[in-house]
Design brief:
Blueprint lengths: L1 E5 L8 H18 L3 E3 L2 H10 L5 E3 L13 H9 L4 E3 L25
Parallel strand pairs: 1-2, 1-4, 2-3
Length: 112
C-alpha cells in the first residue's frame, strides 16, 4: 500500500515540526516499505537537506496552489492518487504496524 504525507504551507518548516515528521516517515517506511510526500519545491528543498527518507517527493501538484487552508493539500493529493493509499499526517507516528488487508471500506478513521 502506498503511504502518503502532504504538507504545503509555502513557508519555512520549523525544526520542532521536522523532528516529528522525520519520525513519522521513518516508522512508515519501516512498517510499510514506502512513504511519499506531496509538497512545494521550497519545502521539498528543506526536507531533502534534513534527509527525511521519502520514497518520492511530488512538487508539481501543490506548487501553484494556494494551500493556506491546512487540509487543501490533502484534498488535492487524494484526487491525484490513482491507487490504494494510506494518508497519514506528518505528526502521526505508527509505532506498530497496522494491518489494513482486512479492511473493505474505502475510508477508515479510528478513534480510541
Amino acid at each position: 500500500m502506498k503511504v502518503v504525507h502532504t504538507f504545503a504551507s509555502h513557508n519555512i518548516i520549523w525544526k520542532e515540526r521536522m523532528y516529528v515528521q522525520m519520525l513519522s516517515a521513518l516508522y512508515a517506511k519501516k512498517h510499510y516499505g514506502n512513504i511519499h510526500l506531496y509538497t512545494t519545491e521550497m519545502e521539498a528543498e528543506q526536507i531533502m537537506k534534513v534527509g527525511v527518507p521519502y520514497t518520492s517527493i511530488n512538487t508539481e501538484l501543490l506548487n501553484n496552489i494556494d494551500c493556506t487552508q491546512y487540509s487543501l493539500s490533502k484534498i488535492y493529493a487524494y484526487k491525484d492518487i490513482q491507487e490504494p493509499f494510506l494518508h497519514i499526517d506528518t505528526d502521526s507516528v505508527f509505532f506498530q504496524k497496522v494491518d489494513f488487508s482486512e479492511i473493505k471500506s474505502s475510508f477508515l478513521c479510528k478513534k480510541k
